[in-house]
UniProtKB/TrEMBL annotation, chain A:
Keyword Cell division annotated: no
GO cellular component, one term: ATP-binding cassette (ABC) transporter complex
Topology in the lipid bilayer: Multi-pass membrane protein
Pfam family, one: BPD_transp_1
Matching PANTHER family: L-CYSTINE TRANSPORT SYSTEM PERMEASE PROTEIN TCYL (PTHR30614:SF0), MEMBRANE COMPONENT OF AMINO ACID ABC TRANSPORTER (PTHR30614)
Protein's name in the database: Cysteine ABC transporter permease
Protein family: Belongs to the binding-protein-dependent transport system permease family.
Bilayer-crossing regions: 20-41, 61-85, 91-109, 192-212
Subcellular location: Cell membrane
Organism: Loigolactobacillus backii
Gene3D superfamilies, per database record: MetI-like (1.10.3720.10)
Length: 229, 246
């Protein structure tokens, strides 16, 4: 590589990394945290045995999951940011991005959490009920801690997916990593180099998350006996 | 005193419980026997409302439940507070240590402080011979050990009645014996117990009252002496089928 290329790499990396720290990472963390809470609520509502008027609420949550899983994330972003102002609802790019990513993560992850809760044997519920626990107690103290272990790999998938999906926020004027790379590429006529650099930084972030995931998996599986017995 | 009157439970077209009328006296052990699918477990599980019969009256001391009416959550919790249950498949909480399995409900249902709950738990674990295993996870224990922890977990709630649903059916004979010894001790201390089992030797040794169930009906309810003297042809056939001698 020529010294010119090295120079370009060294001058381009700081703004790209800065964009990841100021936009990509916070956007991911905030949206995923809120999205997980929404997913938990959605899963709980959809699994609730309650009857009567509550069934309407359950229906609404079903519709929410259906819509957000059946439309592209990019289209969702455009509707929230460019579309809603038409009916007088205006968000800043940040808020629009957080709302859209949160709703999107909430819809997908609610299915993960729902499946994980359903994977816990019925005997766990029954044993806890016979000890006098209420349904919320059983859910939060007995079932969810075990479901967390089951849902960790698929939730990590969603998390890593979200890191990369935040690049779509560039389309609603957020100057995150990808947008910064695009701007420098436009000035220097080095798209291959710049987009590879951007890809490299995504790779590093996701690698760190993958390592974190394997630690979490070990920790949440500490009560499981492994080995061939 | 625990009492059932005209209890009916239907699964699809089959009557799992057919007009059950029975009393379970306090401080005695009632053993429920009968062929597979006769409704033994359904009967036991109705007593702590894991199953809801369609009709009939259930009275537990002063509390009476009418199964034909909706049952309030408060009533359910109140009744379950008075009963403990041990399952065929143990159903220990795998993510909690042995000690925490036993202290979980006393701390979070009875609101005992941690020290008190742990002291009681250690005594109970000692009683079932497992005080050494307090800090291990259930999956590190044998089936017999897990079942003994499950017994300690139920006892920690100081229930008035203990229910055992085929507590040894998933165990090897050797492990079965260690669990049955614990049950025998509990019976000797005049706990109020109801046990569903296939083990006739054990039934003979532990029961104050035997209930023989078939196709959801009570065919016999009386003393073990009377039951094992084979008062009817059906009981004779049942007991013959359960033993190897002809």
């Amino acid at each position: 590589m020529t010294s010119q290329t090295w120079h370009l790499i060294l001058t381009s990396l700081p703004p790209i990394i800065k964009a990841s720290v100021t936009y990509t990472i916070p956007l991911t963390l905030i949206s995923f945290t809120l999205g997980l809470l929404l997913a938990l609520l959605t899963a709980m509502v959809r699994l609730s045995p309650m009857r009567g008027p509550f069934q309407i609420v359950r229906g609404l949550f079903w519709v929410y999951v259906w819509i957000f899983r059946s439309t592209p994330l990019l289209v969702q972003l455009f509707i929230v940011f460019f579309g809603l102002p038409n009916i007088g609802v205006q968000f800043s790019p940040w808020i629009a991005a957080i709302i859209t990513f949160t709703l999107n993560v909430g819809a997908y992850s609610s299915e993960t959490i729902r499946a994980a809760i359903l994977s816990i044997p019925n005997g766990q519920w029954e044993a806890a009920y016979t000890l006098g626990m209420t349904r919320p107690q059983v859910l939060f103290r007995i079932v969810l801690p075990q479901a967390a272990r089951v849902s960790l790999p698929p939730l990590s998938n969603s998390f890593i997916g979200l890191v990369k999906d935040t690049s779509l926020a560039s389309s609603i004027t957020i100057v995150e990593m990808f947008m910064v790379g695009q701007q420098i590429a436009a000035k220097t006529y080095e798209p291959l180099l710049l987009y590879s650099l951007v890809a490299f930084v995504y790779l590093i972030i996701c690698t760190v998350l993958t390592i974190l995931q394997s630690y979490l998996e070990k920790w949440t599986s500490r009560y499981i006996q492994t080995g061939n017995n | 005193m625990l009492q059932l009157a005209h209890i009916n439970k239907i699964y699809g077209k089959r009557k799992a419980l057919n007009d059950i009328n029975i009393q379970f006296p306090d401080h005695e052990t009632t053993v429920i026997v009968g062929p597979s699918g006769s409704g033994k477990s359904t009967l036991l599980r109705s007593l702590n409302l894991l199953e809801r019969p369609e009709s009939g009256l259930y009275s537990f001391d002063q509390q009476t439940i009418d199964f034909s009416q909706p049952i309030a959550e408060k009533e359910v919790l109140q009744l379950r507070r008075k009963t403990g249950m041990v399952f065929q498949s143990f159903n220990l909480f795998p993510h909690l240590t042995v000690l925490k399995n036993v202290t979980e409900a006393p701390i979070h249902v009875l609101h005992q402080d941690k020290a008190t709950a742990e002291k009681t738990a250690r005594q109970l674990l000692q009683q079932v011979g497992l005080d050494q295993k307090a800090n291990q996870y259930p999956m590190e224990l044998s089936g017999g050990q897990q079942q003994r922890v499950a017994i300690a977990r139920a006892l920690a709630m100081q229930p008035e009645y203990m229910f055992f649903d085929e507590p040894t059916s998933a165990l090897d004979p050797e492990l079965e014996a260690e669990v049955l010894r614990v049950l025998l001790n509990l019976a000797k201390q005049h706990n109020s117990m109801i046990v569903v089992t296939h083990n006739m030797e054990f039934a003979k040794g532990v029961a104050d009252q035997i209930v023989f169930l078939e196709e959801g009906r009570i065919l016999f309810c009386g003393s073990p002496q009377e039951f094992f003297s084979e008062p009817t042809q059906r009981i004779h056939d049942f007991l013959s089928a359960m033993s190897f001698t002809s």
